[in-house]
Amino acid sequence: MSDIRLHRLRRGGGPPLLLLHGNGEDGSYFTHQMEFFSASRTVFALDTRGHGKSPRGTAPFTMEQFARDLLEFMDGEGLRQADLLGFSDGGNIALTFALAHPERVRRLVLNGANLDPSGVKPHVQLPIVLGCKIASRFAGRSPQARLRAEILGLMVEEPHIPPEALEHLTVPTLVIVGTRDMIRDAHSRLIAQRLPNGRLAVIPGSHFIAARNPEAFNRAVADFLV
Description:
The chain is of the alpha/beta class. 40% of the residues lie in helices and 20% in strands.
C-alpha cells in the first residue's frame, strides 16, 4: 500500500490514456494533449510523487517506486489496461512500468526517454550534475534544496535499464523525439531497435515537442494509438 495518493487531472471518456510528465514538472505540461485526446479517450495527467500537487511521502525517489505508484493508481481507478504516454523521466517511468507489468499496457509512447544517464547529451547533463551537487550541499538545511537534490538526482543516477531487457517487451511502442532533442540520436534509435514492436518517429523541434509542436506530436501519437 502506497504512502501517498497521486494527484491527477481527468478529462474525456473512452479508453484510458495515462500521461506521465518529465523531471521537475507536473501534469499540466500536457495541456495540448489533454485537449486533443479527451475527445475520444479518458485522459489522466498524473503528478509524479513529490511533483506538482502529489505529496512526497517517505518512499525512495526511484523509477521503480514511481512505477509502483502508477500500478497502485491504476488499481485504484479500476484500470485493467491502459495506453501510456511518458515524457522524459515520465517515459522512463512508463518503460520501467511496462517492463514489470506488460499485461497492463496496451500501447506505449516514449517521448524523449533514456535507458541510463549516458543517453542524455553532455551539454545538457553536465549542468544537471552540477545543480544536483549544489542542491545536495544545502539539503540538510533546506527542505526545498533537499527536494531539488532528489529531483535532479533522478537525472544524474537513473534509470538503469539494460538494452537487452527491451528485447522481451512485446508491447507496441512508439519512440518519439525532437530533431533537436536532448537525448542522443543514437540512444533513441537503440531503444526503438531493441524493442520487438518498436518504431521511431522524429518530429521537428526540441525535447519539448509535445508542448511546442503539439499538432505534429498529437498527430503522430494518434496515428499510433489507433
